[in-house]
Amino acid sequence: MTGRVPPLVIAPSRTGSGGSLTATSSAKEVARAWESFAGGEDIETGVRPEILASWYRCRDRYDVDRTLDAAPEARGDEGRRSDTGVIFTALGGLGALAGQEVERDGAVVTVTDGDGRVLGAWGDPTAQRRAELHNLAPWSSWSEECTGTNGMGTSLEVSGPVTVTGPEHWCEAFHQWACAGTSIRDVVTGAPVASINISRWNASLSERVPSWLTQAAAFVEQESYRRAVYEADKVVAEFTRKCGHTGGSFLAMDRGGNVLAATESAVAMLGLTGETRIVTGVTEPARRWTPDIAGLPEVLRWAKDRARGSAEWSGHARLPVRPGDEPTPVTMRSVVDANHVVGMLCAFGVQEGEAYEGGADDGVGPLPRCVVGMRNDRLVLLAPSEIRYAEAERNIVWLVTERGRIQAATRGLDNVERSLTSYGFRRAHRRFLVNLRRVAEIERGIKGELFLIMDSRTHELVPVSRRHAPDLRRMLGV
Predict the structure, then answer these.
(1) Residue partners of 447: CB distance under 8 A and separation at least 6
(2) 314-319: strand order across its sheet
(3) Residue 215, Cβ neighbours under 10 Å: how many?
C-alpha cells in the first residue's frame, strides 16, 4: 500500500453457528443487554464500556430511533474547511487501495468527513450493494447522532480505533454487520476531521484491523501536523511584527486557543510566572499551552466565525483574566492565510472592533442523570456527590471516588467541568476540578501555596494554582 501503512488483512476464521454474528453466546448476551437498555433500563455490565457509553449517548443525548434501517441523507457542507483537501486526498487514496485489498474478503472500506458524511466507498461489489440497502454510500450520514453506534460515527466521538460487532450496533437493522473505524483528528483543535472504516456482513474482522487503522490514521495525520506547523509559523511571524508596535500584555494563539507566543507582561498578568515557561515562537503542537480564562473558548469560536477569512477583522470582549477579578477588555485580531483564519492575536486592556454579545449559558444542555465512567470491562454510573475531584492527563479525565480511580467516559476536563459545575465543582488548577463539598482540610505550603485535602484519612492533596486561589478561598469562606 505505502511505505508507512502495511497491507490490510481483515479475514479471520469464520464465526460459529453457521457464520452468523448474532448466534454466538457472547453476541446473545450483548443482544439481551441491548434489549434491556433500549427498553429504558440502566445497565453497567454485559457490554464493552466504549459500546455502552455510545448507547448512553444514542438513547439519552441523541434520541436515535433503534428501528432505523437506513442512514439519512447528509446535510450540506457549509461548514467544511477547504484546506482539509490534502487530508481527504491522502485518506481517499488510502481507502481506494485498502478497498482493492479487502475485495476478496467481502468487505467495504468507507471514508467520511468529520461530521460522519460518507465521501467514498470501495471494496467487494456484492458487499457494497448490500451496504447500499442501509444507505452506506456517499452523501449519507453515519454520525452517532444520526445513525447510532457504528464504526464511523463512534470513532468520531472517541480517540483511537473502535470495533462494533453485531448487536453492539444501536440500530437493530445493522446487527448482521461487523465494522471497525478510526478518526483522523486535527492536531491543533483535537476535533475529528475525517474517519476511515471497514465493514463486513455476517462475518467478524481480524484482530489486526485496529492496529492497521491506527497506522492509517497516523499516516494521514502527518498532513495535519505539517499544516499545524505551517500555520504556527504564520501566526508567530505576525506576532513578532506586531510586538514592535503593540505594548502591554499581548499573546498569539492558534485556531484551538493554544498559546504560540506571549509577552512577559501577558504571562505575569495571567498569574503563570513560575508555573508556565514563557513561550516565544512555539510551533511544535505538543509544547503549546492553553490559558485558563473563563469564557475564552466561546469568544475564540465567535471571533473565528466573525472574521470569516478577513485579515482586517478585529473584535473585543470583556473576560475575567483571573477568577474573582473584574472583567478586562480583550481585543482579538485575526491572522489569515489563504482566506482561512489560522490564529488570533490577543491584546489585553484594549477594546477595538466588533463587540462580543454572546451569553454565558449558550450551548449548555440538560444536566446528566449521572456521570458515566469506565473501569476495566464495565461502565460505572456515578452520582456527582461520589466524586471528590477530577484529574486530567492530557485529554483523559480520571474521577477520584470512594470506589477508586475511574476514567470518565467524557474526554476533556472542560467538558467534564461543564457537566459538574452545577453540582458545586470548581477548577482548582489547569489539571484539577474539585468538589467543594468534599474538601476536608486546607494546607498551606512553605512558600504560601495552597493544597486542598480531599480525604483526611489518606492526606489526599489537590494543588491550587495561584490564579485560582482567591476564588476558592472566597467560595470556601477562608
Answers:
(1) none
(2) 259-262, 250-254, 340-348, 328-337, 314-319, 354-355
(3) 17
8 Å CB contact between 412 and 398: no
Asked if residue 193 lies in contact with residue 84, where contact means CB atoms within 8 angstroms, the answer is yes
CATH architecture of the domain covering 25-225? 2-Layer Sandwich (3.30)
From the number of C-beta atoms within 10 Å of its C-beta (0-12, 13-18, 19+), residue 402 rates as exposed
Grid cell at residue 252: 498569539
Specify the range with the lowest mean pLDDT, choosing from 160-169, 205-214, 364-373.
Answer: 364-373
CATH for 371-476? Answer: 2.40.50.1020
Are 413 and 434 spatial neighbours (Cβ–Cβ below 8 Å)?
A: no
DSSP string, 229-256: HHHHHHHHHHHHHHHTT--SSEEEEETT
The domains spanning 25-225 and 246-355 adopt the same CATH topology: yes
Q: What is the pLDDT of residues 347-358, one digit of tens each?
A: 999 999 999 987
Distance from C-alpha of 21 to C-alpha of 473, rounded to nearest angstrom: 57
- 246-355: CATH topology is Beta-Lactamase (3.30.450)
C-alpha cell recorded at residue 370: 449521572
The residue extents of the domains of the chain are 25-225, 246-355, 371-476
pTM over 0.85: no
Cα gap 468→278, rounded to integer Å: 19
Give the Cα separation of 137 and 213 in Å (integer): 20
